[in-house]
Amino acid sequence: MIAQFAITNLLYRYAEMIDAGDLAGAAALFEHARIKMRGGEELDSAALLASWRRRVKLHACGTPRTRHVVTNPIIEVDEAAGTATCRSCYTVLQQTDTLPLQVIAAGRYIDTFARVDGQWRFASRDYSLFDMPGDLSQHLSG
After folding, report:
1. CA 65, CA 30: separation in Å to the nearest integer?
2. Could you give the angle at the alpha carbon of 103 between the alpha carbons of 121 and 127, nearest 5°?
3. Which candidate among 6, 18, 69, 118 keeps its CA 20 to 30 Å from the CA of 109?
4. Helix (H, G, I), strand (E, B) or coil at 31
5. What's the pLDDT tens digit per position in 104-142?
6. What is the DSSP code string of 61-87?
């Protein structure tokens, strides 16, 4: 598979899994990655999953009732080195029984990727670029 397609599929798979409430599956995408959080803390995939389980509110349907939309991926690939970078934007929409459909968050991702055993994998993600918080009361705890 062409690197750019494999990488955009990873971006979209992450969004799909989070929206489905599959936090473990989403965290598994970062098995080979380091995650930079706000405040400079770095997490591995296990710590990321633990954080999501503490903070992400899953509703009666088993999902966070969100739609993560990832847009504008700018991907640069170094085929010889088996590495890539990607800058993208995200918008999170949510609707619950008490919250009308609305944008609750927008920001940017800066990701790096590495080819591991012939497959593209996340190598890092910068989660600190949370530019526009909205009403997160139905999505996150704390």
Report:
1. 22
2. 35
3. 118
4. coil
5. 999 999 999 999 999 999 999 999 999 999 999 999 997
6. TSS--EEEEEEEEEEEEETTTTEEEEE
Residue 107, Cα to own-chain centre: how many angstroms? 11
Q: Which of the residues in the chain have pLDDT under 70? A: 1
Q: What is the torsion angle, in degrees rounded to the nearest 10, for the CA atoms of residue 134, residue 45, residue 33 and residue 27?
A: -60
Q: Are 94 and 102 in contact (CB under 8 A)?
A: yes
Sign of CA dihedral 140, 122, 131, 70: negative
Contact, 36 vs 127, CB < 8 A?
Answer: yes
pTM score of the predicted model = 0.94
Domains and CATH numbers, the chain: 3-133 (3.10.450.50)
Q: Please count the other Cβ atoms lying within 10 Å of the Cβ belonging to residue 124.
A: 17
Cα–Cα distance measured from residue 68 to residue 71, given in angstroms and rounded to the nearest whole number: 10
